[in-house]
Each structure stands twice: as C-alpha cells, then as structure tokens.
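Re-run with default settings, no changes from the original entry. Doing this only to confirm the output is reproducible before filing.
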Amino acid sequence: MKTKLTIAFGVMVASAAIACWSDLSLEKVIQQSHVVVIGEITHVTTADLPKDGVLYQYDVADITVQEVLLNTLTNRVVAPKQNLPLSMPSVKNRARKSTDIRYEVGARGIWILELRDITFWATYPKDYQPMSSEKEVRQIVQKLRTDSSNNRLQERRNAVLEP
C-alpha cells in the first residue's frame, strides 16, 4: 500500500511541475541570440512515432523569413523568403518537460533564434515576440549595432565558429 501511495504522489507531483526560467530582459535575450527575424511558421514536420526506449524527440518547423533584423553568423546566410529550420519538442513525445515550448503553423512574429548544430532553437519564452513588440525589438537591435562598447554580438559570432 505504501508503494502505491508513493507512486501516486510521484505522478501527481510530476504532472504539476511548472517550468522555471530566470526573467531576462528582452535586450539580454537579443544579445544572446544569433539571428532575429520577422517570419511565420509555414510548415511543421512531425517526428516519427517514438520507438521503444525513446521518450523524447523533436519536430522541425519552417519559419519563412519576411525580414532579417539581425544576423551575427558569419558562416550562414539568412535572407528574406528563406525557410529556417526551427527544432521544438515533438507533439508525439511520450514524456513532457515543463520547459517544452511548441509553436504552431501560422505563428507570425519576431523570432529570436539560437543556432545549434544545423537547426535553430527558440527555447526561452521571450524568443518569440508578437508584432506589437516590433518597435522595441528594432530599437534594441539598432542599439546593439551602434554601441561600440558592446562586444556581445562579436562574442556570439565567435562562439558559433569555435569548435
């Protein structure tokens, strides 16, 4: 009986888990990104059904770029009308994490992206901004471009190029 209660309590606690992030300013989020674009998710490729022993995998969304606001990558071109691959937790995952963030087809806004391996990620709640934030995002990007004392963009560029 004690074992059953322990298991039941564990399931209740796990299902009630809440994500926890540090609250970063939008400027800090943009400083730490590689690419900032205005675009829309036009397609999502869903991962295959999980095989035995596989609990977690990723779907890939296509963000169709309307405008590039910032690209700190020297080894990757990002241009309007291009589709950027965005990895996100699969809708078919057997297990969930409290920090899972998914986006649906039609999500249009400002994408603040990090490049890892060959795909982009938007894993922090502020990595997607509605179009109502466009003026603020443009001001931050302009400040980062003109602030000669700010070396964050160069640091991000170098971090991607180093093995």
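Residues 4-16 have pLDDT under 50 and may be disordered. Helices lie at 2-15, 26-31, 134-146, 152-161.
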